[in-house]
Amino acid sequence: MTELEKQMRRLGDNALKASRRLIGFSAKKKNRILMAMAEELEMRRDIIQSANKLDLQAAAENGLTEALTDRLTLTDARLDAMIQGVRDVAALSDPVGRRIWKRTRPNGLIIEKRRVPLGVVCIVFESRPNVTADAAVLCFKTSNAVILRGGKEALHSNSAIAEALQTGGTKAGMPAGAIQLVGTTDRDAVHILARMDDRIDVIIPRGGESLIKAVVSSATVPVLKHYKGVCNLYIDRSADLQQALAITENAKCQRPGVCNAIENLLIHSDIAADFLPLLKQMAEQRCVQLRGCGKTCAVIEGCQPATEADWSEEYLNLTLAVRVVSGLKAAIEHINIYGSHHSDAIVTDDKRNANKFLKEVDSSSVYVNASTRFTDGAMFGMGAEMGISTDKLHARGPMGLEELTTYKYVITGTGQIR
Amino acid sequence: MTELEKQMRRLGDNALKASRRLIGFSAKKKNRILMAMAEELEMRRDIIQSANKLDLQAAAENGLTEALTDRLTLTDARLDAMIQGVRDVAALSDPVGRRIWKRTRPNGLIIEKRRVPLGVVCIVFESRPNVTADAAVLCFKTSNAVILRGGKEALHSNSAIAEALQTGGTKAGMPAGAIQLVGTTDRDAVHILARMDDRIDVIIPRGGESLIKAVVSSATVPVLKHYKGVCNLYIDRSADLQQALAITENAKCQRPGVCNAIENLLIHSDIAADFLPLLKQMAEQRCVQLRGCGKTCAVIEGCQPATEADWSEEYLNLTLAVRVVSGLKAAIEHINIYGSHHSDAIVTDDKRNANKFLKEVDSSSVYVNASTRFTDGAMFGMGAEMGISTDKLHARGPMGLEELTTYKYVITGTGQIR
User: Fold this and answer.
1) CA A248, CA A236: separation in Å to the nearest integer?
2) What domain range is A336 assigned to?
């Protein structure tokens, strides 16, 4: 066993031990600990921001992109939001122990299906240091032990935040090992963790596609993938064009760097001649770069032609690929082939078309006449979220507290035998 | 691409195509197709049993064990049960389309969480040919396309059954590709399928531990493991000893070859001197071979000593490992370490101990004062089952129709933007 393997195994052992203790914790006790974490974060604002400055210095020296540097930066407002987030999670109701159903069988056996923690959760994420707090408290609230692995560019910030959570939590009775940060930036650490199926119950990789693919390929631990969002908006023949334009603008421009922003716009050929000029105007006003199919380029002069690769690209910026399609069927096919099964919308006044779209588009969130930007735990009324799963098993779409639990069957008898 | 890879990819393409069509099928249409399958099986009884004879001949020539030969044999009664099973699944209610919840958000968005099919399911199983029909109809009922990979010793039987399902189904409007059997016995086929994550949504390996481990290790498709059942029964200090004995006998002897039979018996040290003689007598009457810890062997003369390996062994026969433990805490620890998180029971009259056991034993099904033999879809009132998952994610314990679905969020708006 290498030194790194030993290190990771120790993390796993500590987490497993902590998770066994967390099973017995009441919601009240967990909330008290969460409030102590928030308080400790508050007290350590300066320490955390100094640590963040170290990361930002290194980022400048290493020429990190502006977008990544922005994600890395812990402004006062972001720190406030992070601390408030911890308090908000304390206020959410605890799914652990909740009864899903209860039945009495003809032989008198009482069978209950009850929510229980997953056990040990490992999260792999990128540059945003506030994820350290968000993920840790959601796992703790659901009585899971968590192993956090953040991006190397945020190591100082993440360490300072994790230390605050650990210190605050420990003061209020949190077991050691409940929240642990992987201290090394060695990439192999992730692959070792992903094969520790005797210690870790699930690994949740968020971020770059290549990282996620690498984890999936080597993992024996079940993986909940948070892949990219290649979201699509389809404007049907019967759409209200002004509504369609407003939704297009919102879904593309309101926050282009997030996974529920759209990358592709599909337009029914019958209305393309009417809608494309409106789109062109909006694009010019909002500095949106269009990449069009042949028919789009024929209407919008000077539009850059889209290539096959454009249909499955997650731009994360103000680029929009535009394709004129022959109708609903072609739109659904396009979305199921090129999309990432995240969030897709139709604008239509035709109820039958809406229903066909909702049924046949194979994505976690399907919309009629609304912006895809609403795919988010808070917007769905689920409370805080760990991220948005692009998987179909266990958790699909926003992953909230409930998705951090599993269930067990509890059977009470009076001596029944078979 | 090898010829085998091309073959598997064709199966995947066909399945994906079929699954897209199945999404639009009503429960009524699916049930009509299921009844047609049952009828075709009925008409082909002779063909199926002739095929089964070929497998049995080969089994005799290859010296297959008696237990495996028994599993392979399609008696009249088993064929009846298989055909009735298809009709029973037609009679079950269809979870697809069922609403999990519906909310109207403050901005007027209507958000529904609805059950939808998983898509393409791949099942890998061993010698029992009736699994071909059971698994195929459960998947079909939930609008999933299925790829079946049975044991090579049952290939003739499985082919005859699959052909009957396909022919009967097709007559009633089932799309080609909805039910497919892997025609080759090449072991590599499973590993190719397990990496086809662009076509297959889940792979469910049932059977031998080494097969399952190999699938998990190479898979990029999510795996739902159906590992072994190392089930435990703990007799607490306050147990009614006659009830404890009856449950021990039932859980071990009623059908020792199944996964929910017990392999380990744990006894509180305070009652060991009273209980072990009763156990000895029962074991002699029922031909149960005991393997005991030191304390057990000190009371039961001539008892074979248990080794460390015995505590995690799935005997699947009339062997029972017996350990005297210092109390509840030690029993829970033993079960969480050596058990397979399948089904575990406590016999006790102490409510607090019962609750501690139910909470802290980390298994899919935890029992108080009843036999572990009840872990089964039908016994839990869930209807037919695909098997019993030892995983924590997505499906835990008996996997019925609902566990063969996932969900999507359906959002209906009137132009909402963010």
Assistant:
1) 13
2) 231-374
